């Protein structure tokens, strides 16, 4: 946010703050006129009044424009920061980031940023009437000012309750959104098993809890405002009555002046009420701001930058690997190596830990005993561990995520790519003739709903080739494909001049692999050698 915007906001705020004094000034100027006033005096009164309103409301307009500009800037920055932290941190779930960006950021914008930017306006609109009241008559002005401050009493005593209700509403809203997302993802299951009534009952119950929490929050805000009503009556009647009494000894006090002071005091009370409401809005966002603050304060555990690949992968070493999952031993005392260029197959029964082993090799999960390293051997024959080894690795799953972008953008993912290079890659993965005359411009829809499963996997392979990955981990990528497409994908993978580590449940031809690692009874068997 540029400083000049804040300076401009301060200037126009002072100008539009005189809106609370327009009635008093016009009334005061009108008191100078009488039935014997000249036409020039009447015209001067009109000119002054119109100019006053023109300047004040021009200030109001500029205040809105500058405020909206600042809101746009800070909201964009907050949304981008939240997404950046999500992309750089694997601890945040999809539901959490959707809730934060779609709801929490908007709530912070509407109920924190807007009040924060407009509170100075209402403070100025309060100070100017106070100065006016005190300069007209000190005693009556003090009474009107004290009366207006009575409006702050309900806020003081109800602030903690309001904050508590705001916390409850934030929690319920997040839980409601999570259930909506979960139900939406399971739509086909609900339809197939005729479970509409069960899930609609759950949703209605959750919606009711969310609406009730918001209902309670708004009612508490309304109660706080309503309690200010009787206090407003005291603030109006008592100072006005005192002013009438003082007219006996104060010749400058007139009914017209008291009316002008009463109108100004009414405007002052309105400013105080707005301050109460805005303060309540800010307090209501405490829990949400803390949650977003925790997200933004989380340190990244994912490399956000694609580092240049300067290493040449030589081999992957696994030594004394041990891993438990929920008190169950998956692997123990496991040792093996995978050399550059090898084609390795990992097999085992369902639930034996094949996918877990793949995640351990990728270093996406941490073993209980960690001795998994990628090495390169330099020209002098000295081996060195590879830092940032994940930059050398690509994971291909059964259903890779495709963005609703062109094939070009889905492969490049924001990097600079030449069309010639991309067309060569498409030819290598045999997609150059399957997506029309201009395959790079082919638009993906709904995460690849408009292309086949085999084509989706080929695009993921193309991404790996474009980024010059030296190791590809394939996690049961042919499980949902027909036999012909499965053979085509496997033929493509095994023909690449890089290291391939594939997990498969349906075993292909073992002879096509350099190593076959079988997970059996907590051990990994490679060829004839049993480790452990």
From TrEMBL:
<dbReference type="GO" id="GO:0016887">
    <property type="term" value="F:ATP hydrolysis activity"/>
</dbReference>
<dbReference type="InterPro" id="IPR003593">
    <property type="entry name" value="AAA+_ATPase"/>
</dbReference>
<feature type="transmembrane region" description="Helical">
    <location>
        <begin position="130"/>
        <end position="153"/>
    </location>
</feature>
<dbReference type="InterPro" id="IPR025662">
    <property type="entry name" value="Sigma_54_int_dom_ATP-bd_1"/>
</dbReference>
<feature type="transmembrane region" description="Helical">
    <location>
        <begin position="6"/>
        <end position="30"/>
    </location>
</feature>
<keyword id="KW-1133">Transmembrane helix</keyword>
<keyword id="KW-0067">ATP-binding</keyword>
<protein>
    <submittedName>
        <fullName>Abc transporter</fullName>
    </submittedName>
</protein>
<dbReference type="GO" id="GO:0140359">
    <property type="term" value="F:ABC-type transporter activity"/>
</dbReference>
<keyword id="KW-0472">Membrane</keyword>
<keyword id="KW-0547">Nucleotide-binding</keyword>
<dbReference type="InterPro" id="IPR011527">
    <property type="entry name" value="ABC1_TM_dom"/>
</dbReference>
<dbReference type="InterPro" id="IPR039421">
    <property type="entry name" value="Type_1_exporter"/>
</dbReference>
<dbReference type="GO" id="GO:0005524">
    <property type="term" value="F:ATP binding"/>
</dbReference>
<dbReference type="InterPro" id="IPR036640">
    <property type="entry name" value="ABC1_TM_sf"/>
</dbReference>
<dbReference type="GO" id="GO:0034040">
    <property type="term" value="F:ATPase-coupled lipid transmembrane transporter activity"/>
</dbReference>
<feature type="transmembrane region" description="Helical">
    <location>
        <begin position="42"/>
        <end position="62"/>
    </location>
</feature>
<dbReference type="InterPro" id="IPR003439">
    <property type="entry name" value="ABC_transporter-like_ATP-bd"/>
</dbReference>
<feature type="domain" description="ABC transporter">
    <location>
        <begin position="316"/>
        <end position="529"/>
    </location>
</feature>
<feature type="domain" description="ABC transmembrane type-1">
    <location>
        <begin position="7"/>
        <end position="284"/>
    </location>
</feature>
<keyword id="KW-0812">Transmembrane</keyword>
<dbReference type="GO" id="GO:0005886">
    <property type="term" value="C:plasma membrane"/>
</dbReference>
<dbReference type="InterPro" id="IPR027417">
    <property type="entry name" value="P-loop_NTPase"/>
</dbReference>
<dbReference type="Pfam" id="PF00005">
    <property type="entry name" value="ABC_tran"/>
</dbReference>
């Amino acid at each position: 946010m540029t400083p000049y915007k804040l300076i401009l906001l301060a200037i126009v705020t002072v100008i539009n703050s005189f809106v609370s004094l327009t009635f008093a000034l016009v009334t005061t100027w009108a008191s100078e006129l009488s039935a014997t006033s000249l036409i020039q005096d009447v015209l001067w009164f009109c000119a002054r009044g119109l100019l006053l309103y023109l300047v004040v409301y021009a200030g109001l307009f500029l205040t809105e424009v500058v405020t909206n500009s600042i809101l746009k800037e800070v909201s964009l920055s907050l949304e981008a920061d939240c997404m950046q932290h999500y992309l750089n941190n694997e601890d945040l779930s999809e539901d959490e980031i959707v809730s934060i960006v779609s709801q929490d950021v908007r709530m912070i914008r509407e109920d924190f940023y807007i009040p924060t930017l407009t509170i100075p306006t209402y403070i100025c609109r309060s100070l100017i009437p106070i100065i006016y009241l005190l300069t007209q008559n000190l005693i009556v002005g003090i009474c009107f000012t004290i009366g207006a401050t009575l409006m702050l009493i309900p806020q003081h005593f109800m602030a903690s309750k309001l904050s508590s209700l705001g916390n409850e509403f934030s929690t319920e809203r997040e839980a409601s959104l999570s259930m909506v997302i979960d139900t939406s993802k399971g739509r086909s299951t609900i339809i197939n098993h005729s479970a509409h009534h069960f899930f609609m009952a759950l949703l209605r119950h959750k919606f009711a809890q969310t609406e009730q929490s918001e209902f309670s929050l708004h009612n508490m805000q309304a109660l706080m405002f309503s309690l200010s009503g009787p206090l407003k009556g005291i603030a109006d009647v008592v100072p006005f009555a005192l002013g009438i009494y003082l007219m006996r000894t104060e010749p400058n006090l007139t009914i017209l002046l008291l009316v002008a002071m009463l109108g100004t005091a009414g405007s002052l009370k309105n400013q105080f009420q707005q301050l109460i409401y805005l303060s309540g809005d800010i307090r209501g966002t405490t829990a949400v701001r803390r949650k977003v603050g925790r997200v933004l304060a989380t340190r990244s555990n994912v490399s956000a930058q694609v580092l240049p690949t300067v290493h040449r992968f030589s081999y992957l070493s696994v030594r004394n690997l041990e891993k438990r999952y929920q008190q169950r031993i998956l692997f123990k005392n496991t040792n093996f190596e995978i050399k550059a260029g090898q084609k390795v197959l990992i097999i085992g029964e369902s639930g034996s830990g094949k996918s877990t082993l793949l995640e351990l090799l990728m270093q996406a999960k941490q073993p209980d005993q960690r001795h998994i390293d990628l090495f390169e051997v330099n020209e002098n024959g000295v081996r060195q561990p590879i830092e940032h080894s994940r930059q050398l690795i690509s994971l291909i799953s059964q259903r890779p995520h495709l963005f609703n972008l062109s094939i070009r953008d889905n492969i490049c993912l924001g990097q600079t790519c030449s069309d010639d290079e991309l067309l060569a890659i498409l030819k290598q993965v045999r997609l150059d003739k399957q997506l029309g005359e201009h395959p790079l411009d082919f638009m993906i829809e709904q995460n690849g709903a408009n292309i086949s499963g085999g084509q989706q996997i080929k695009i993921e392979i193309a991404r790996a080739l474009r980024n010059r990955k030296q190791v590809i981990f394939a996690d049961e990528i042919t499980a949902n494909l027909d036999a012909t497409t499965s053979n085509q994908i496997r033929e493509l993978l095994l023909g690449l001049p890089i290291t391939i580590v594939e997990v498969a449940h349906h075993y292909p031809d073992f002879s096509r692999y350099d190593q076959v690692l079988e997970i059996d009874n907590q051990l990994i068997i490679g060829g004839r050698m049993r480790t452990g």
